[in-house]
Amino acid sequence: MSESTPFRAAAAGRPVAISIRNVSQRFGDAGSPNEVVAVDDMSLDVRRGEFVCLLGPSGCGKSTLLNIVGGLFPATDGVVMVGDKPVKGPLPRDISFVFQESTLFPWYTIRENFDVAFKFQNVAKSEWASRTKQALEAVNMGAFIDHYPNQLSVGMRQRVNLARGIALGTDIILMDEPFAALDEQTRMVLGEDLSELLAKTGKTIVFVTHSLAEAVFLSDRIFVMTARPGRIKSIIEVDEPHPRSPDFMLTPKFSELRNQAYALLRDEVRQAIALAREAEAAHA
Ligand SMILES: Nc1ncnc2c1ncn2[C@@H]1O[C@H](COP(=O)(O)OP(=O)(O)OP(=O)(O)O)[C@@H](O)[C@H]1O
Ligand SMILES: [Mg+2]
Asked: Would you say 25 and 61 are in contact if contact means Cβ atoms under 8 Å apart?
């Protein structure tokens, strides 16, 4: 699948924010029994202001690819560019992460947790207070600024986690299953918030999820991946402007896209389960 596949959505004409070229990732020594090829020759471009989703079975290399894009470790092969910079390590001014587990320090209040992140990402101190307030208010958590994480529910912590990713003010946010630990209703509401955020701020977001509905609701393009080694199997375009209303989910277009994604994924999920069984048998 060519990375230059034409697409219609608004982001199509915008400059490239992230360019992934022929990226492969191998863990373990080549040819050794513990060799794992997690990602195999993936190439794709993400446009500025685009919401792109990686959808694929467990173990297909989604987190690996996201971590490579974020500079957490270098790829075995290939190149990632952010704007005109090759990624050689973390780029705290350009990229922030939101992970599935809220990564808040339990001994700091929410405000202090944000301050730690601002410090790490070199945000000017004069901006800390206003950014924290604004981002927490965007996810309706403004009242909890001086609470400790363990005084919040899991859902609330994850909203704070999302707000921190936003507050850092980077143009690119990488999100690895940020809503996976949440109940369905909270997930849906946060999805709407995220779509609104995208419309307002023009952030570039690469998002990993296992939820077909979430992928269709949020994405401009969905990159459906094969079972390990992860490759791009197909690209689904969701040509629908942000902010998206929950009514979008009731349309035939939404159902069609969701079914299309599932049809593409079904065999890959079976393949991933077979791979996991094989690995288990080899280990026994
Ligand atoms: N540091 C590592 N060392 C060895 N193998 C690894 C390492 N990180 C990932 N892998 C392997 O690479 C493959 C891809 O892992 P990855 O976490 O990227 O998958 P994923 O698509 O994010 O899966 P999930 O949906 O379950 O989160 C898996 O087989 C995993 O075991
Ligand atoms: Mg993962």
From this structure: yes
